[in-house]
Amino acid sequence: MLNPWARNPWFESVAEAQRRAARRLPAPVYQALLAGSERGLTLQDNQRAFAELGLAPHVADLAPTRSLGVTVMGQPLSIPVLISPTGVQAVHPQGEIAVARAAAARGVAMGLSSFASKPLEDVIAANPATFFQISWTGSRDHLAAGVERAAQAGAAGLVLTLNWSFSEGRDAGSPHIPLRVDLPTAIRLAPAVLRRPRWLLDWVRAGELPDLTVPNLAEPGAPVPTFFEAYGTWKQTPPPTWDDVAWLRSQWEGEFMVKGVTRVDDALRAVDAGATAISVSNHGGNNLDTEPASVRSLPAVVAAVGDQVEVLLDGGVRRGSDVVKALALGARAVMIGRAYLWGLAANGQAGVENVLDVLRGGIDSAVLGLGRSSVQELTPDDLVIPPGFSP
């Protein structure tokens, strides 16, 4: 029997989006999205942990309509999903602009990385519900200038990502990512690119080459740095103290998320530093390998600080039931990364909208089956949790 989805631009699962992304992207680009540090054990556990959690459905007295919306960092969301900030999105010419438009079209907030390839002003214009993400890179003056720029642009909140320890070894191999895309680089990469003519055609139609610069980290009046130039600055910057975190929070008047927390003691320190939200995250398996899956760390963090700040979950979400499981364990919402990047690679803005629709459908089905009328009613009683699930 023929696959009815084979030539349909719309897809029915995030897994199908990933398959289409693999067929469309040059091998080095696809490999960069896969990532996963060292042996990739944390990357794998992020998804395996969700599979270990079971749902405990009812069969009657089910709610005929369900409320799926939540409010996160002051922003009303149609579903409990946010776009997690990821760096240079050169899988598609429109990159972060396409993602922001898709998120806005589906009533979802956008997280924009300081390492993004599009200026934050343009992204906020496409989606006013945009949170600007900052990594601790450069001097305090540089960081304060970035915060001021975000404020002037109208960012809805600030996200400080802390869990990055420059673990760069990958057993699966690291893709070659050039410093910049110039003619010699284009020639060197031609064999891989020519095997994916549709991806190349997207860029030809856009009249540009993949942009590996990071405009949101540019100093006033200075040339825009490339990704690796900015990454080098980040690597040479002494890591922040909790006093530094409190100082950065003092520079921002609005909502302030600390992203990358997996331990209770760190969660408590983040609250003391002034965080209004925490994202329980292991950086998608790209930080220290053998960290537990984010969802395993979630319940303890929720128990410690969930009555003081909003707690979100980031890592391994691929379907709507994953979202529901995270909320049942106490998360306010989840953040997605690779899932929307697969959609972007597969079909641009429409592909990201497609991924969000897939998640919405899965969330609604799970909430229906669990006999709840709202995602805000979910509790651990809706799950079958195996012994020893959490650390």
Summarize the structure.
InterPro entries: Aldolase_TIM (IPR013785), Alpha-hydoxy_acid_DH_FMN (IPR012133), FMN-dep_DH (IPR000262), FMN_HAD (IPR037396), MftD (IPR023989). With 391 residues, the protein is α/β, with parallel strands linked by helices.
Taking pLDDT < 50 over at least 5 consecutive residues as the criterion, the unreliable ranges are: none
Query: What number of domains?
Result: 1
Sum up the overall morphology in one term: globular
Strand content: 5-15%
On the 0 to 100 scale, the average pLDDT is 93
Count of helices? Answer: 14
Q: Fill in the CATH topology.
A: TIM Barrel
Please count the beta strands (DSSP E, at least 2 residues each): 12
- Gyration radius (Cα, Å) is 20 Å
Structural class given helices, strands, pairing? alpha/beta
Distance between the termini: 45 Å
Helix content: 40-55%
Please summarize the sheet with the most strands. Answer: 8 strands, parallel, barrel
